[in-house]
Amino acid sequence: MSPWTIAAIAIAVVTGLAFLWLMGPKRRDTLEVGAPGPRTLEIPLQAPRPAGASDGGSVADEIDKLWTLKEEGALTAEEFEAQKARLLSGQAPTPGAAGGYQVVLIDPGENKINAIKLVRELTHGGLKETKDLVESPPQVVAEGLTQAQAEGLKAQFNAIGATVELR
């Protein structure tokens, strides 16, 4: 190849990149989810926080959590769409429908070692963090659960003599 051909290719590449950069998304306050086209969903990153919603993350993070629950089978497609619509409109999601149950350890019981083992299995945390969590109740040990999952965990904690509360 001649030097003129290489120069022409380099100019074409730089021009193409500059064009893509200039013609990229104009709105930097939204997140596009999905393939481009009519099914693309734009999620406002700075939407007003729903009343009663957790303060840990943006609306996009909340929708991502809902998507994870849907993929795990904790939400049906209809429940996912309903909760997503509520979040995008600035309302808080319905806790029960979104698998929003929490298991709160109230008292580890007589045998703290079994409670530490069970909490460590749930949280996949280190021994020290888990021990600190169990020894300073009340603490949330699991969240984002369906009612059936929460009831199952409550039964496991009750079997080892610990007291838990479902929220």
Q: Describe it for me?
A:
The chain contains six helices and five strands. The protein is of the alpha+beta class and 167 residues long. The chain has two domains: 30-88, no CATH class; 101-166, Ribosomal Protein L30, Chain: A (2-Layer Sandwich). The strands form two sheets. Strands 4-3-5 form a three-stranded antiparallel sheet, with helices on one face. Strands 1-2 form a two-stranded antiparallel ribbon. Helix 2 (59-71) packs antiparallel against helix 3 and helix 4 packs across helix 5. Residues 27-31 and 45-55 have low confidence and may be disordered.
Tally the structural domains.
2
Strand content: 15-25%
Main pleated sheet = 3 strands, antiparallel
CATH architecture of the largest domain: 2-Layer Sandwich
The general outline is elongated
Compute the average pLDDT.
75
Any idea of the CATH class of the largest domain? Alpha Beta
Main-sheet strand order equals 4-3-5
CATH superfamily of the largest domain: Ribosomal protein L7/L12, C-terminal domain/Adaptor protein ClpS
Assembly category = single chain
Could you name the CATH topology of the largest domain?
Answer: Ribosomal Protein L30, Chain: A
Output the radius of gyration: 24 Å
Poorly predicted spans: 27-31, 45-55
Instruction: Look at the helices and sheets and give the structural class.
Output: alpha+beta
- The number of helical segments is 6
Secondary structure: number of strands: 5
